Amino acid sequence: MKYVALFFLALLLLSAAPLVYRLGIGLSQGYDVENAIRYYFADRPGGTTIGEDKVPLVSYEVTWEGDVENHRLLEASGLAQSSVSPGVLFSVNDSGSDAELFALDSSGNDLGFWEVDTEKNVDWEDLASFMFKGEPYLLIADTGDNFHWRPTVEFIIIREPDTESLAMGAILPVEWKIQVQYPNGYRDCESVAVDEQSETILFISKRTVPAEVYRIPLKPSTQEVRATRMALLNTIPQPSEQDKWEDPKYGLNRSQPTAFDIRGNKAVVFTYKDAYLFKRGWRDNWIDAFSKIPVRIPLPPVYAQEAGLITRSEKFLYVTSERKKGTDRVGLFRVEL
Fold it and tell me: What is the pTM of this model?
């Protein structure tokens, strides 16, 4: 009996080891471990959204443009089109990777990668391109917070590199950073966009139901700011019974926002399954636009689709995903609007 008890104690310790390891990392980084423990064990009832049958489904032509060539781009968590060279796309890796920016063409061919001059990639989750005062920039969203324990998240702004002239091995300097606090507790976020017209950063919570849209100024007067919640995305429906049947383990996550982009009066929210296209009328602001029912656009059924963009021409979407097991081929897909 003694050995049976010891056996089960060992199993318990082994099963708890990953959690203990994570908590140890959190303590060393100054994260709110107490809140992470509460979040881990909490019952998290969600709100309500409209049903899938209420959102019009529009299918557009989807084409495979090519595979992502650079094998260092293992877990693409953001995708952005160059503001000055339409055939150039940029991407970043998810958490745990080096702080690097990748460039690729619209067929996935490698155009180079460069180190970003910042401490580390804590949890880079999206990428946005924008023009500011006549110059092209990229915003890196270090906003992932799976454990709900980061007191602040960070936006990192760099100048868009010239892929034709910048030497490999060059280090990209940071132009400015923004430390962000949420007004109502910690949030995990993988979906960030820049509205050039209002010079505002908009970003969407991932694990709340309905998803919440927040905003901050693009270049605030102070480095630390408090976000403002501006809208609830209760027009993005929750996973259907079919989703749960097709994927009993992860089907419940299919409606979570994983990428976001804004071009002109169009905003696109990407999820693991579909993209949702919101249009802003000439009298509307984004609060008005997000209160309306969007168009639902089916996306290719690929693994861990967490990177997407709408082109500056507003004619196409591009999406890509993480490499399954870190080694599998991964495609770049185009959706014609």
Answer: 0.93
